Here is the input.
Amino acid sequence: MFSFQITNMGREIFDSNLFNGSSQTLFDMMRLTAYLSGRVQRVGYRAKLVTLARNLGLVGFVQNRPDGRVLVIAEGDKDIVEKFASAIRIENALINVEMADANYSNASGEFSLFQKVTGPDEVGERLDEGIEILKSMLTGINSLTKITQSGFEGLNCKMAKMLDKQDETVGEIKGLNCKMDTMLDKQDETVGEIKGLRRDLKDHMDQRFESIEGELAEIKSALRVRGII
Here is the structure.
């Protein structure tokens, strides 16, 4: 469960000096000092608070502490500071604010913007983390490259098999063409035989008709001789 402990500090009376050029006096401004614990370091928590504070028009800073907590000091209008105090209780896949020890006091007017404060060793640590992340990315890229190469090799093998099948199909088509040519040759022979048979039949019928006509002529001649016709 998230715990938020707030201590209200007594306010002092300030003069009428303007705060950062605004029309509000320091008396109208409030400071939030909060120590936040949980999963709050090296997860992008400070960057989120910087964006949130600047969008609300607050000034101050956010800083990682050696004990693993995050320190936030924000100054601005009372209502906006209280809104910011509620918004910093972030819980998502990376950030988990488990507890916040916070108190309110009078604004000091010492800040002109809200920024992230980094320690002298933090840059080196970030570089080390960046190098490790880069190594992980390179390892992932190498693994992906191997997987891709393996996939292409498998694809090439499949394409080679497909080409072999295609060659077999082309060979079968050529064989089918040969069979079709043979069938056409056979068909031509059959047509030639039919034509020859028709010629033979015609010649035979012509001979029979000539023979019948000759026989009829002889019969007619005999009938005339006997005076029948």
User: Anything to note?
Assistant: The radius of gyration is 53 Å. The CA atoms of residues 19 and 26 lie 6 Å apart. The domain at 3-118 is CATH 3.30.70.100 (Alpha-Beta Plaits). The longest strand covers residues 29-39.
